[in-house]
Design goal:
Radius of gyration: 28 Å
Shape: flat
CATH class of the largest domain: Mainly Alpha
Strand content: under 5%
Order of helices and strands: HHHHH
Largest sheet: none
Helix content: over 70%
Number of domains: 2
CATH topology of the largest domain: Helix Hairpins
Structural class: mainly alpha
Length: 167
């Protein structure tokens, strides 16, 4: 069965009528003079929603690509990943409560996020400065200090959570 000229516009007209009648409370009949305007408005709204969704897909694509950039070549993740896995295994063995699980996962996410921000600062510094710059060095040291503070705080929180489960 071949598609005839006008089939698409009739299909769109039926879809517009059904959508307008059921969702918007506007009854759109084919003889209605506003049909063309309503159809263009519907297509415009639909197109904007598709572009908005595409924008979100692109944001997630960029975020996962950034995750790869942040992890690649960073030796600190060779420590963070095994430590995170061991924390999760220990939490399962000690049968931690839901709140304790949330706290531990939040601590892991905090340390990883700080490490990714540190990686972002390092990548930015490499891209902007070819020579030794004391201000860039201070920024890199400060970003590394943020990871250190977050890691120490998370280790203390993890020790408290596990101590309450063991004792």
């Amino acid at each position: 069965m071949a598609v005839q000229r006008g089939d698409f516009s009739r299909l769109i007209g039926v879809m517009v009528w059904v959508m307008d009648y059921n969702k918007f409370g506007i009854r759109l009949l084919p003889e209605d003079a506003r049909a063309t305007w309503n159809l263009s408005r519907l297509v415009t709204n639909f197109t904007e929603k598709v572009l908005l969704m595409t924008g979100w897909v692109n944001k997630f694509r960029c975020a996962f690509r950034g995750l790869g950039f942040g992890i690649a070549g960073q030796s600190s993740f060779y420590v963070h990943i095994p430590v995170a896995i061991s924390v999760l295994v220990l939490a399962a063995l000690l049968k931690c409560s839901a709140v304790q699980w949330c706290v531990l996962i939040l601590c892991i996410a905090l340390v990883w996020s700080l490490e990714l921000m540190n990686s972002a600062v390092e990548l930015l510094a490499r891209g902007l400065c070819d020579h030794q710059n004391p201000w860039v060095g201070k920024a890199l040291d400060t970003a590394a200090a943020a990871v250190l503070v977050g890691s120490i705080g998370s280790a203390v929180i993890g020790a408290i959570v596990f101590a309450t489960q063991i004792f």
